[in-house]
Amino acid sequence: ENYLETKPINFATPETFYNNEQELTAALMAVYSELGSTNEGTYSRFLSLEAPASNDEILRRGANTEAAADAYNASASYDRFFNCWTALYSGIQRANLLLENINKAQVSLDVKNKIRGEAMFLRAYYHFILVSYWGDVPLKLSSTNSLNQIYIARTPAKRVYEAVIQDMINSYDLVNDITSYNHAGRVSKTAVAGVLARVFLHAAGRLQDASYYQEAKDWALKVIQSGIHSLNPDYKQIFINHSADIYDIKESIWEVEFEQDNNSQRNEGERFGSTIGIRNNDDRTGFMQGNYTATGVLYNLYGIGDLRRDWNIAPFYYPNFDRNNPPVMYPANYRWGRYVAKWRREYQTKDYNKNFGGTNWPLLRYADVLLMFAEAENEINGPTAEAYHAVNMVRRRAHRLPAEQNSTAADLPSGLNKQSFFNWIKDERARELAFEGHRKLDLLRWNLLSTTMQQMVSIISTSAPSASNTALGYSGRTSSLRPYQNFSSRDLFFPIPTQEISLNSLMVQNTGW
Amino acid sequence: QKISLSERKASLENIFQLIEQQTSYRFVFNTIILEKAKPVDIKIKNAEIGEVLDLVFRNQPLTYTIVKQNIILKEKEVSSPEIMVIYGIVTDEKGIGFPGARIGIKSKNINTITDEEGKYKLVINDVKDQIISFEALGYQKQEVIIQDNFNIDIQLKPDLKILEEIIIVGYGEVNKRDLTGSVGEVNMKDLTKAPVKSFDDAFAGRVAGVQVTSPDGQPGAVPTIIVRGGNSVTQDNSPLYVIDGFPIEDYNINAIHPDDIASIEVLKDASSTAIYGARGANGVVIVSTKKGIKGKSVFSFNNYYGLQGNTSQIELMKPYEFVKYQLELDSIRAAGIYLQDGKTLESYRNENGINWQDELFREAPMLSSYFAVRGGNKDNSYAFSSSLFDQKGTVIASGFKRYQARLVIEQSLNKRFKVGVNANLSSLKSYGTIFTGTRNTFLNILINTWQYRPIAGNFSLDELLNNAQDPAVASATNYQWNPVLTATNELRDRMNSLLTSNVYGVYDISNALKLRVTAGLNLSKLRNDEFNNSKTRQGSSASPLGQRGVNGAITFTELSNLINENTLTYQKSINKEHFFTLLSGFTIQENKFAYYGSGAIRIPNETLGIGGLAQGVPVAIPSQNSENRLLSFLGRLNYNYKSKYLFTGTFRADGSSKFTGNNQWGYFPSGSFAWNIAQEKFMQGLHFLSETKLRLSYGLTGNNRISEYAYYGAITQGGNNSYMPGGTFISGAYVSNLSNPDLKWESTAELDFGLDIGFLNQRFTLTADIYKKKTNDLLLNAQLPTSSGFSNVFQNIGAVENKGLELTLQSFNIRNEKIKWNTSFNISFNRTKLVGLAQNQKELLSTVRWNSGNDYAQNPAYVARIGQPVAMFYGFVWDGVYQFYDFDKTPTGTYVLKADIPNNGNPRQNIQPGDIKYKDINGDNVVDMQDRTEIGNPNPKFFGGLANNLSFKNFDVHVFLQFVYGNEVMNVNRYLMEGGTTTLGANQFASYQNRWTPENPSNEHFRTRGWGPSVYSSRVIEDGSFIRLKTINLGYKVENKLLQRLAISNFRVYVAAQNLITLTRYSGNDPEVSVFDSALTPGLDYSAYPRAKVVTLGLDISF
Prior knowledge:
heterodimer, A: mainly alpha, two-stranded antiparallel ribbon, B: mainly beta, Immunoglobulin-like, 59 strands, 8% helix
């Protein structure tokens, strides 16, 4: 009988794993890894560019006839919905298995706690992304271990938010300070606090429950009061650092780590860098497709002297889409169709791979924390001096002014009421955090996405040039309008992927899909 | 006194002189008697005088006597003729006079036949000691020496040989008459008439119920063999091979030379295959190699040499049409290239340009050389063979080569005990760029060749021919690469060494009881060499795909199978009426698999090739290791009552390490019954029926084709599931597989009803089988809702049903001394149906990544729906082309689609006259994903073959036709080659010249740029039916005295051809194609290596 009992000889089994710190760390890295899933379902491309577009800040260039989430014409069978959903639940499963097996390991409690904290936080973060885009989703706080557990029903969004908050709060005490790492690649206390502020703001908006603002403010304050973080004086340097593998933990609190090693072994590159950028077909100088452009609306949001505009939005183009040619400045009135230029591949330090690069994706910046604080404070107490100060620090940096130095050019006008202060924050978030994947989710939590999309139709119809300009990459008014015309109320949520619907008997589809 | 002579047409006197010169003999004769002498041809060395004289006088009217040193000649005496009458009556086995029997005396060349009553009469002279023979079709030939009795009556005996053919079945052999199951035999005599590397290439259409599809024409490619329709959905459906008793899954048939094969049997029904239990469900192919025959040594040589060419070539646009299309596609850029220096479109009217297909393809030689010697004596027998097969591909720098040797020895140690060994060693090498299965559009060389521009425009054709990249279209987004450079510089060597060896001992414990012990070893080592030098698209830094620089890899795949089988056979008869055969045994098998290798990129010294790997930057190669074990008990009881009622019961228990717990053991019983009706008394009157047998069988068989550790939850480590916080790489590990300890065998239940009928003493025979099989507990790599954290798991869910009808007809049309003509025909009908899938799952969609873009890769090309065949093409129904009448013309002159005309998936406002049109299936006036449906069926309605053998005197001819009817093929080449590509500078099929223009409102080809959305549609679904003149072999057997004297018993020269003519309506190169061949994704044509037609000249010699 024993003759037939063979043991696998080239892989470990769960029963024989999770024994020591190295194995626990390996299991944790696999949880992180889904942030940059190679099928581009997460931040390699989908969560960074496509899922949060198109809106009043960003627009996919081109005819918009192919199915895509950001053209609002994809169906539930669109594979990137599936890839994203699958990657996030895979991350949750990995985290659950790690959390369930961690006590087996013969390691110190400190090590266990740190790893437990990170895994718990990531499990919560993945749920947070799911609930943000899909609404009610299955909440999975334990792993799937047998075929009897594969059908899971949707959990009401409120319950998901509560679980996310619980997990994140629990992890806060367990994880390390960012200073112990000196990089933003792992989850630290201030990363947890900052993301918690974000989660509470979302909960407040999407669950229509203003009581969450207080906690949003408190957690943002924890980051501010940690004394670790401050703004980088040079706005553009933040994004150059992302590309150049430089860590500035003062500004950048949590990043998705990408590395391009030219296909040799690791395959941890991102694809958003070659998808956006100032269009360049020469892959020896950094191939950039320039597939996303800023809207004229965003361009017009920037005031005089705001240096962020010409960094975020390309001020020039390369003739014939070739970076070997000297750049040519756009005419001042060319405001629609400028490329997204926040990350430029010329700052990447490794040899160029055509499509893949090693630019890190920002998940949490200190500027965001300041704006979140100001927003929560305004919701609770109105535009207090603290709220003003937080926003002004961000605005002064945009003009390359010291954060603590008053500036008439940069500072917010005084005497704003709660609503007008909110409107300033709304625009400030667009200016500061442009293309960082926040806009659509912000509009959703403010319940402004539908009206914004409708307004865009009339704005484009009147102000965007009607003719296309192939030399510059502008595809014309008709194509530019298409995502906004396609948008309908069903697009407040992504569809549950077809495969999930057809295989999971307990799953029901979002309305309109 | 030895004599040597070498003369042609010499006179006798001349010969006499020569002999007298060499010896002391003298000739004595009267010169007159030499007048009737004939000239002499003689060639002899160091012979005795008697031997020489016998030769010299063999045909002379002279005899000689030797007296001392004198040779005295005299004329032969002519005896007076004695007239004789031979007479008698010929009767059949029942004593009834037999009309039409043939009687002959060969030495006299005299023949006659019997009259109505069976009587005959021969009038001849000098009959003493002559042999008279009696022959009738279906009866044994009888010969009698005529002595004093001239009244010779003969009773003919039926020739039972035809009925007593031995069929090899699992763990034994059986008299064909006593067979109860469904077993297809291959006529090896016919099969070896085909000039092919291995038997599977000539297998298609030879056996009813066996579907053979070769994926394409790449030399060394192994065809897929499916017996009675595929059972499994996601798992392998290929049959189990039993090579000289050694069961092996996934055997590489290329290892065996066809001339080494004595017989091939295909076990089809459950009754025959259940003895192989868990591995029998896909059918079993039993290959037995030739053994030594006791008697003198027989040497055989079989050599042929031939040439191969492509069966067809697709017509591409000539320069004029190409430039015209380019100007339509992008007039500004195209004008910059083609309309320089005063050139106009008309300048290209008579240009021929480059036909890249001519550059890539060639006429290629094929050579086969086979030698064998077989023989034996009372106690032993032996067979040794060796061969060389060298086939150059019809694509430059590709081909297949095999060296092979086999040794078979059997030795009796004593009366009861014999031992034997059968070992085969083969070394195979396939080389050349691989055509199919590459995901990236641009890596598929045939597409690359078709698309490469025929004309340069603004520089010389020579530059276009020799440059690595076409400078006019080279850009970061264009992956084109000179296909000739690709084919000549990409190193893709696949070298396989295979050793199959069996050692056995047979011990007769008593006359009734026999023990057989076998030990077998099968080793395969596949070495894959890949090297991309700086002239290749993947190795040149100038290529968008060449970022890794010069690179290469060597990988090894090692397989080993070890087996030990022990069987006891007991035979017993009671009263010569009841016959029992009882077989029992147990077997142990162990299979190991290993995959490893190494590779490097940015290799500095490319001239070293693979040898320079060490100097490059190493890259990781995923390694794999696995093993599995099988332990089995088997038993079979045959009971035979007077060869009238036959019963077979088999049982096998298999224990496999691929499963765990209670599922480790599977039990596979079967039973069958046959009734030889012809043996019944009430059938005795029906003279013309020589055989009538009914067969009925039912049984269970299994399939265990899953990976070794599928039931385990595996931890996968490394690679892209790692992370690099702070820029430091840390390997990640995760549970990649949901464990499923409930995993068990896939089981197939099969019912077979068969009928064997023979007429006129087996002159015409018909074998018919109908079957129905249902496969339950499908080992399905089932999709999971991914909210579970996993995408797939091996589960036993779902079911597939196959039912079908098979007919085999054989006929000896003419069988006489001079002319023999026989025909065999078979046809098979199989219907496959998916009965169930994973829980809640109604359909299974499958994508095929033939294209690097996301569009086609993300759309499923196939659907498997419950109640439908396992694979159906899936997509939109093509509805021609939008014509002007579908539009309203606005005052500004633009065309707006009429409100009641549906769009084509693109936004309505973009649609113009000439655009492709799809059917709005659900009638909502919008064409979207909901309008996809089944658009074609890749499963044939029927298939089969027709073989004819005709011999006339020394000539013989074999003609074999293969046919497949009713299947459809998705020709995805046409998506890219008929106006569907945006790539500038890509040539197109000539068929697209007939595209829609306002002047040519074609409903077949859309306008330039009118391609619409990138979706699968019925537009490229084509009828894949064909009839192929698969094999023709014309031979002449040379017989002359010289050969006889050299003891050459067979000297046959022949011309053989393969794939000469194919009749089909398919527009591609060949309708027999399936580049992503699997149960879910059959019948897709994309950049397939064209199939070659072969004409060879061969010579068979044996002595």
